[in-house]
Amino acid sequence: MRALVFQGYLWGYILSKANKTFTINKLKKAGKNIEKLELINKLILKCTKRLVKISGADVTVTGIANVPLDEPVLYVGNHQSTMDIPILYSTAPQTMAFVAKKEMEKIPLLGYWMKERGCVFIDRDNARNSLKAINQAIENLKLGHSMAIFPEGTRSRGPQVGDFKTGSLRIAMKSGVKVIPVSIKDSYKLTEKKGENTNTKVTIHYSDALDPNTFKDTNELAEAVLAQIKKHL
Q1: DSSP characters for the chain?
Q2: Per-residue confidence of the chain (233 residues) as pLDDT tens digits?
Q3: What is the C-alpha separation between 205 and 173, in angstroms, rounded?
Q4: CA-CA distance, 68 to 94, in Å (whole number)?
Q5: Cβ count within 10 A of residue 174
Q6: Which residues on adjacent β-strands are paired with residue 180?
Q7: 54 and 6 in contact (C-beta within 8 Å)?
Q8: How far apart are CA 62 and CA 232, in angstroms?
Q9: Residue 52's closest CA among 180, 231, 202?
Q10: Is 90 exposed, middle or buried (0-12, 13-18, 19+ CB in 10 A)?
Q11: Considering just the CA atoms, what is the radius of gyration of the chain in Å?
Q12: pTM to 2 decimal places
């Protein structure tokens, strides 16, 4: 039942805000990028906060002070469930765009909002397009826009952390922005246990920022990020 309410609210919200797409496009054409981003952030933040509440998540947030607010960062988190994006977006001290799977770009209205927010889409079956998306994420960071990525590439659907695709940390190495390891604990309990509608305690921790310039390569950076994530799971 909760899943139906979740989907119902999500699509109902998107459809009710369909007219905002015209406003977004108008601001884009007028070159008012700041105003465009502010509108999209407002739309997404309201939706994600409501989705977290509907999901039954009792979220505890720690480590907020570790995130610098005066510079762009790359959030790098473990990935347990479909709720990770709403939880991260609604709790982070600064908003961000995501490196997401290609399929999300095809979702009506939402895909457009994500693209205009600065999200980039990875096509795992097309190396050239994936590289293009990674380069776009690097450019976004250099322009001052924070990004987020889940280097496992897919949901673990449990407490374990899958292998990191170290190439994704190239975004940090090439852009030079600080990395914020993000530990998301027990979000899988919200979506992976069928038939249960009980509230679940979920914790999200933002670890100390890591400077990619102090690591020799992406492998070393990935190891450090993974260690910080596991430390708080």
Answers
A1: -HHHHHHHHHHHHHHHTTTHHHHHHHHHHTT-HHHHHHHHHHHHHHHHHHHHHHHTEEEEEE-GGGS-SSS-EEEEE---STTHHHHHHHHSSS--EEEEEGGGGGSTTHHHHHHHHT-EEE-TT-HHHHHHHHHHHHHHHHTT--EEE-TTSS--SSSS-----GGGGHHHHHH--EEEEEEEESGGGGTSSTT----EEEEEEEPPPB-GGGSSSHHHHHHHHHHHHHHT-
A2: 567 777 888 889 889 999 999 999 999 999 999 999 999 999 999 999 999 999 889 999 999 999 999 999 999 999 998 899 999 999 999 999 999 888 888 888 888 999 999 999 988 778 788 888 899 999 999 999 999 999 987 777 777 888 888 778 899 999 999 999 999 999 988 876 654 556 789 999 999 999 999 999 999 999 999 999 999 99
A3: 23
A4: 9
A5: 17
A6: 75
A7: yes
A8: 10
A9: 202
A10: buried
A11: 17
A12: 0.92
Q: Specify the residue for token string 């995130």.
A: 67
Q: How big is the chain, counted in residues? A: 233
One-letter amino acid at 85 equals I
